[in-house]
Amino acid sequence: MKCLILAFTILAVVYAAPTNEQREAVKKAHEHCQSQEATRIDSDVFDKLRRGEKVHNTQLSKHTLCMNVQAGLQTESGDINVDKLRKAITEATSDPNLVNTIVEKCGKRVAGETAEETAVALFKCLHSQGPPHGHGHH
C-alpha cells in the first residue's frame, strides 16, 4: 500500500514511514468511511488529490472527519484529541521539539469551526508540517 496523503489525516495523521499496523488501521478506517454514504468519496477525487489538484467536494470534509474520528484524532463533535495526536506524531518522529511544534500548531480547534472544518484544518496543518501522510489509497 502506498503512502499518499492524511495529506489526509494522519493519519494525516502523520506517518512518514507507517508500520504495517498503522497502514492496516488507516485502511480499515478508510473502508469504514467509504462504506457510509454520508462520507463516501469517488475515486476520481482521490486521483485529483494525488495530482495536487484543488478539490471542491462537500463529501471530502465529511470523509476527513470520519477518518480522523476512526483514528481517534477527533471526536464526532470535532474536538481534537491532543494526546492521540501527540502519540501519532511521536510514532512518526523521534524529535521531541518537532512533536511539540506540530502539536502546538495543529492541535488547536478554532472557535466557531464546524467539526468538518476542524478536520480539514487539521489535515492541512499536518500536511504542511512534513512529508506525505498515509491515507491508504494506492
TrEMBL record:
Signal peptide stretch: 1-16
GO molecular function, one term: odorant binding
SUPFAM superfamilies to which the protein is assigned, alphabetical: Insect pheromone/odorant-binding proteins (SSF47565)
Any Pfam family the entry gives: PBP_GOBP
GO BP terms, alphabetized: sensory perception of smell
Cellular component terms per the entry's GO annotation: extracellular space
Subcellular location: Secreted
Keyword terms: Secreted, Signal
Protein family membership: Belongs to the PBP/GOBP family.
Protein name in the entry: Uncharacterized protein
Protein source organism: Diabrotica balteata (Banded cucumber beetle)
